[in-house]
Amino acid sequence: MALWPTGAFRRNLRWALRMDEAAILGLERQGWALAGSRHAKTFYDRLLTADAVLFLPGEWLDRTRALEYWLTMPRWAEYRLLRPKVMPLADVVAAVSYRVVAREHGRSEPYRADCVSVYAQQNAQWRLTFHEQTPVRSCRCP
């Protein structure tokens, strides 16, 4: 049995998800834009599933710890999501992968990481259930 959707089933998922790709990428971008702001906790409180897990450099966070984390992290002066790709995993589950290049206010060296997030649809809303960031030490990134 295949772990990933294949054939006609995958094509149908792809078609159904196409309408939601912009919404999912919009949620990712909004998360990066709000990180460290007073609005971050409200945004992520609505976005995270009850059992959400985040794997960040050097630590993992459950939902409660993640909500506090986004309030205390530094704000990004700028960020870019490079080569974003949304992939259907099931009829109500999608993953998005990308490389982020972000720079904090007052710092010249950017943060670079390969990221993956998994979203599940609950009550017709996309909700974040998993997020991982793997720092990239050196790359030919813009």
UniProtKB/TrEMBL annotation:
Domain of life: Bacteria
Pfam families attached to this UniProt entry: DUF4440 (PF14534)
Occurrences of domain DUF4440 (ranges): 24-128
InterPro entries xref list: DUF4440 (IPR027843), NTF2-like_dom_sf (IPR032710)
Name of the featured protein: DUF4440 domain-containing protein
